[in-house]
Design brief:
- This protein is mostly helical.
- The chain contains 6 helices and 2 strands; from the N terminus they run H-H-H-E-E-H-H-H.
- It has helices spanning 5-19, 28-35, 39-51, 76-84, 113-128, 132-150, and strands at 55-58, 64-67.
- A two-stranded antiparallel ribbon has the order 1-2.
- The longest helix is centred in the C-terminal third of the chain and has 19 residues, at 132-150.
- It is globular and about 60 Å long.
């Protein structure tokens, strides 16, 4: 399974907003510059994030984007699902096991589906266990450590 550019850049933009949480709206132009991503592409990503309810847009001269809720309550899983949809390594997991599964007619007797379900569950649990706050903290600690090593 490969994480798409949408998810990578969407997460980068959300971390940027989390780092500015409580300081007012952040202009998309400044996020694009800091993250080295096209402003037009970020607009598309923000649309998905807005629909998922994790960001709000504010219009006007002093407008921009803000997190819709505290960054401690927004998980990496929330962001990836906003960008990609349900996290499932195989399509058959997108519907219930049974004869009417539109993705696979063998889900009733498929013994491999359980493996894919365990994989999906593990990925979801891991992504949901990481909040924007914890991710920002890790980034900050890594940056401080790197600055300290450069001083030596």
């Amino acid at each position: 399974m490969k994480v798409s550019t949408k998810s990578r850049y969407g997460l980068a933009a959300m971390v940027d907003l989390a780092e500015h949480y409580g300081k007012g709206p952040v202009a998309l132009r400044s996020v694009a510059a800091r993250q080295q991503v096209s402003e037009h592409y970020l607009e598309q990503l923000m649309s998905s994030l807005r629909k998922a309810g994790v960001v709000h847009s504010i219009r006007g001269a002093q407008g921009g984007y803000v997190l819709a809720r505290d960054p401690a309550t927004i998980s990496v899983g929330d962001i990836v699902r906003a960008m990609e949809g349900p996290i499932a390594p195989v399509d058959c997991l997108l519907a219930d096991r049974g004869e009417n599964n539109p993705y696979c007619e063998k889900t009733c007797e498929c013994n491999r589906r359980d493996i894919w379900q365990k994989m999906s569950d593990s990925i979801n649990v891991t992504l949901d266990s990481i909040s924007l706050v914890s991710l920002c903290r890790e980034i900050s600690e890594t940056n401080e450590k790197e600055r300290g090593e450069q001083d030596i």
